[in-house]
Amino acid sequence: MLEIKENNIPLPDIKDIAELKAYRRSTKSMLTLFTLEPLPKGGDRDRILLDNFGYSKRQNNRAKELHSTISSKRYNNQNLKLSVEKDKIKVKGKNRRLNIYWNMESLQEKFEQKIPALIYVLADSKIIKNEEYFYFNEAYLLDGFDFELFKKMVRRDYIVADFRMYYRPNGSVRNHGTGFRIKINQLYNCFDNKIKLI
Prior knowledge:
Distance between the termini: 15 Å
Largest sheet: 6 strands, antiparallel
């Protein structure tokens, strides 16, 4: 109805006003706030991650892949975690020294560019003759999510980072973008203001 197609554009969906997110009410998945690659730039960073922390699956014939959710409180199954420091958020490897990080300035710029406010819409869904139908019946305008709160949410594991990359058969790296994601049940707690729209 709004003529907004699903996209990965690094700007708000509704002009400079708000990002739009629509979810099935029953979903347990996390919501992607934005995507931003860590520093340093270039393929070497991804190769270091894939070579040291990647894994292989027989069914897809990929030499190595890394689909990994990283949080602050503990190392994950791939022995990676986040560390929130004064001027950066670092990726730490267990028993492996890494120089992979996001600087706070870039994160804040991306955050403020992508999410000046958030319109969060919930829908009930059902399948009729193998086709899914949606009934959008609840929506909120959320704003007042400042960057200091973002850092606290990362420290508390409410916001995590997702690596999504793999080696192609020719040896090059395919990176689907590193996403900062939030647990749905924590979404409302992140904003100072919540206005019910429908």
